[in-house]
Write a structure and sequence with these properties.
CATH topology of the largest domain: Transcription Regulator spoIIAA
Distance between the termini: 52 Å
Strand order of the largest sheet: 1-4-5-6-7-8-9-10
Largest sheet: 8 strands, mixed
Bound molecules: iron/sulfur cluster
CATH architecture of the largest domain: 2-Layer Sandwich
CATH class of the largest domain: Alpha Beta
Strand content: 5-15%
Number of strands: 10
Radius of gyration: 23 Å
Structural class: alpha/beta
Order of helices and strands: HEEEHHHEHEHHEHHEHEHHEEHH
């Protein structure tokens, strides 16, 4: 068949695809597959939105989306999937989603690539259609029965999914009943990501996290008891030089009590447009040098008594080893504790033993305006 005749055979599919759209947000954790996850925005922005270090949803009102709208978005993804698969079949690639399929689609409509919904669905299929991330900042804020309805619909409509994950807050987890969390887990939510930041009550108040360490522990323990894979993110240097030790010790204390599946390090960077950036600029908060940050990390790790995986899966964990490479692996599965606690402490000692100027200093990055 000539190529013109060929692409006429799937022109109708492409026209249908280009008219489809669903809500996709901006943020997801790096460990959630890059372009390999389908992103679905089940609420919009953050219901709390008061943390002094966070710029993610500033000025954006929280929107509680109706269940019917979310289900309609899921149906739209399915329609897109079916159209793409039909085109794959028409060009002799039955069951495969590869570059030939993309070329065929773009030969009809080159602008399809600029359609964010299409790119999201195509990349997800290209990587096997296995994972979904439910956006935005706090999915557990949904009424449990509604979240369950969404999850069941998602699992039924997109049956290739093997993992569904989302963000939530410790405070919200602490307010949920264990039976509800179990039912949400059973309906198909596998993993939740929580911004712990610190376990120090004084610092939690200062950064206006809206939760106490007791609530963090309560929420985290409930999530683990409900069977979720729980990722807790902490922020080295959030307390600056002023509060580094209490931050390290109390963060370890809270994480020990929760014993989450994952502990992920996200070193603090004051970001322009946040309240904490003003504190930094006006000298009320002093960020630590690379060695001081490592010292804080050392205290936190020494105090950790968990069976979690401890991860440095973000480029702000930018310390250098003695050969000039990265000190820590940035693998999403990180280091298994307690087995790899001593090797991690050994790496910290290695980082402390080399000249401090060989590490990247957060102040240089801020000055360069690269963050
Ligand atoms: S709860 Fe999370 S998303 Fe909301 S303001 Fe705090 S850090 Fe930002």
């Amino acid at each position: 068949m000539a190529s013109g005749a060929k692409n006429n055979s799937y022109r109708e599919n492409v026209e249908k695809i280009s008219k489809l759209s669903f809500a996709v947000g901006v943020y997801r954790p790096p460990s959630e597959g890059g372009s390999a996850s389908i992103l679905l925005r089940i609420t919009e922005n953050c219901p709390w939105n008061k943390c002094t270090f966070c710029e993610m949803y500033k000025g954006q009102p929280f929107v509680y989306r109706p269940v019917e709208d979310i289900k309609a978005d899921i149906d739209t993804v399915r329609l897109m999937v079916d159209e793409i698969r039909e085109v794959a079949g028409k060009i002799g690639q039955e069951g495969k989603i590869n570059r030939d399929v993309l070329r065929a689609l773009l030969s009809v409509d080159p602008y399809l690539n600029d359609n964010h919904c299409f790119s999201t669905v195509f990349s997800w299929l290209y990587y096997g259609g296995k994972t979904a991330f439910l956006q935005d900042a706090d999915s557990m804020i949904m009424r449990p029965l509604e979240l369950i309805e969404v999850l069941k619909h998602l699992r039924k409509t997109l049956p290739t999914l093997t993992r569904v994950t989302s963000y939530t807050r410790s405070k919200t987890l602490s307010q949920r009943k264990l039976e509800d969390l179990k039912a949400i887990r059973e309906a198909g939510l596998d993993r939740i990501h929580v911004g712990l930041e610190t376990g120090d009550d004084e610092l939690l108040k200062i950064v206006r996290k809206g939760v106490t360490s007791a609530e963090q522990i309560e929420g985290g323990k409930k999530a683990m008891a409900a069977g979720f894979q729980l990722s807790e993110y902490w922020m080295p240097d959030l307390g600056g030089r002023e509060r580094w030790r209490q931050h390290a010790e109390n963060t370890a204390r809270v994480l020990n009590a929760i014993n989450p599946s994952y502990i992920r390090s996200r070193p603090f960077v004051p970001r322009q447009g946040t309240e904490i950036f003003n504190d930094y600029e006006q000298g009320r908060l002093h960020v630590s040098s690379p060695h001081d940050r490592l010292e804080e990390l050392q205290v936190m790790i020494e105090n950790l008594d968990v069976t979690s995986r401890v991860c440095f899966d973000h480029n702000m964990n930018s310390w250098t080893n003695k050969n000039g490479g990265l000190l820590f692996s940035q693998d999403y599965e990180g280091y298994k504790f307690p087995e790899e606690k001593q090797p991690v402490l050994e790496l910290i000692r290695e980082g402390l033993s080399i000249d401090e100027s060989r590490h990247i200093d957060v102040k240089e990055l801020i000055a360069m305006g690269s963050l």
